[in-house]
Specification:
The protein is of the alpha+beta class. The chain folds into two domains: about 40 residues; about 140 residues, Immunoglobulin-like, CATH 2.60.40. Helices cover about 30% and strands about 35% of the residues. It contains two helices and eleven strands. A five-stranded mixed β-sheet has the order 1-11-10-6-7, with no helix packed on it. Strands 2-3-4-9 form a four-stranded antiparallel β-sheet. About 15% of the residues are buried.
């Protein structure tokens, strides 16, 4: 017995129903994928912005490190006769003089020393402006010539200075006391001294300069 065929309109109804359901399913899938893609795109943008901000911050920090700090410039160069504060001492070089020998004649005999070159003698005034006793040394004061060479005091020759006790060598000075004395240097004849450098200790790398021409 042959099967009864369904009318054509019933079969088209099922086809339309399937097509409609297919559109619904497809529509629900597409927004989800698009939303997911949008989320990934936004996340990528956020990562790029974060990276750019980090790079800019690093550059700013590097530039800040390169820029030198602004400091108040301290005067460290003076002229002959100026008062110069160096640590707990206030220095002043009043004049300088030259001599070929230092000492005196006693009963026809010279008691003193003769320079290998010539003696350059600085006359100085030093005041302790601190609040406690300080040790003063002639080695704090160096001579600099026009070739940049450095000369230290001749302490042994200073013992023969007149009047006796006028040498400024190694001693302790109390606060408020002003010491006047002389510092002796044995230098080559004709030496052109351009600077006197004064420091606060033997190990001090910083110094103050007094300009002078001998």
């Amino acid at each position: 017995m042959a099967k009864e065929k369904k009318p054509l309109y019933k079969r088209w109804y099922m086809i339309v129903l399937y097509v409609f359901l297919g559109f619904i399913i497809l529509g629900s899938i597409l927004p989800e994928n698009q939303s997911s893609n949008n989320g990934l795109t936004q996340e990528s943008k956020d990562s790029q912005q974060s990276l750019q901000t980090s790079v800019q911050t690093t550059k700013s920090n590097d530039q800040a490190e390169v820029q030198p700090e602004s400091k108040t410039t301290e005067q460290k160069t003076f002229n002959l006769g100026d008062s110069v504060d160096v640590g707990s001492f206030k220095w002043k070089i009043t004049k300088f003089e030259k001599a070929s020998q230092i000492g005196q004649n006693l009963m026809g005999t010279f008691m003193g020393v003769k320079a290998n070159g010539e003696y350059l003698i600085l006359n100085v005034e030093v005041e302790n402006v601190g609040k406690s006793a300080q040790v003063l040394m002639d080695s704090f004061v160096k001579l600099i010539d026009d070739q940049g060479r450095e000369f230290s005091p001749d302490t042994a020759a200073a013992f023969y200075l007149e009047p006796q006790g006028s040498a400024l060598m190694f001693e302790t000075i109390n606060p408020g006391i002003v010491k006047k004395g002389k510092i002796v240097y044995d230098v080559p004849k004709g030496l052109k001294v351009v600077d006197v450098r004064i420091s606060n200790s033997l190990l001090e790398s910083s110094f103050y300069t007094i300009k002078m021409i001998s």
